[in-house]
Specification:
4 helices; mainly alpha; binds zinc ion; single chain
Length: 176
């Protein structure tokens, strides 16, 4: 990918503009990847949001169908970008979940060490083991589900904006 030479500003702009994948396209793409919908229909030639047969303008990006004809399927490159988006999101979410899990384990080991040092009674060890399970689960859920979700979303969208910027330049070269 040659996204670097497109300039930070362009990428920043792309990231802030209306989402590259509109809500409607996102749900269609999710359905396509789940095998619940075929990659067929009428899609905006610019942003690939599905558009109804009678419409002459895209509701998402305001593209005039006269200027850039609608397409009958989402291009492979766009499908690949979407898959990459989902992959990046879950990578970050899982990463944060693991950090939470290991924090729970580290706490367990720390408490275990203290109990061992002071010669605590066996019930304290039982408590420590319970702590391990509860804390690992709660921290994994919190870090993955809240922080990871938020960070992953931003990260994946930003990378998508880079990918899209490259794609849009290539696409412009190939269309007269
Ligand atoms: Zn559009």
């Amino acid at each position: 990918m040659t996204g670097r030479n497109l300039g930070e500003a362009a990428v920043q702009r792309a990231a802030e503009e209306p989402p590259i994948f509109s809500e409607r396209l996102t749900s269609v793409l999710d359905a396509i990847f789940e095998g619940k919908a075929p990659n067929a229909g009428r899609f905006c030639g610019n942003c690939y949001t599905p558009i109804d047969a009678q419409r002459t303008r895209c509701l998402h990006c305001d593209q005039d169908v006269e200027q850039r004809p609608a397409v009958e399927k989402v291009p492979q490159e766009v499908l690949a970008m979407f898959r990459q988006l989902r992959r990046r999101e879950s990578l970050v979410v899982n990463g944060f979940a693991y950090v939470g899990l290991f924090s729970g384990v580290a706490t367990f080991i720390g408490v275990f060490y203290v109990l061992f040092t002071v010669g605590a009674s066996v019930w304290w060890y039982v408590f420590d083991i319970a702590l391990l399970f509860v804390l690992s689960r709660v921290l994994a859920g919190l870090l993955g589900g809240y922080i990871g979700d938020e960070v992953g979303y931003r990260y994946a969208r930003r990378k998508l904006a880079e990918d899209w910027a490259v794609y849009a330049v290539e696409r412009a070269k190939n269309t007269p």
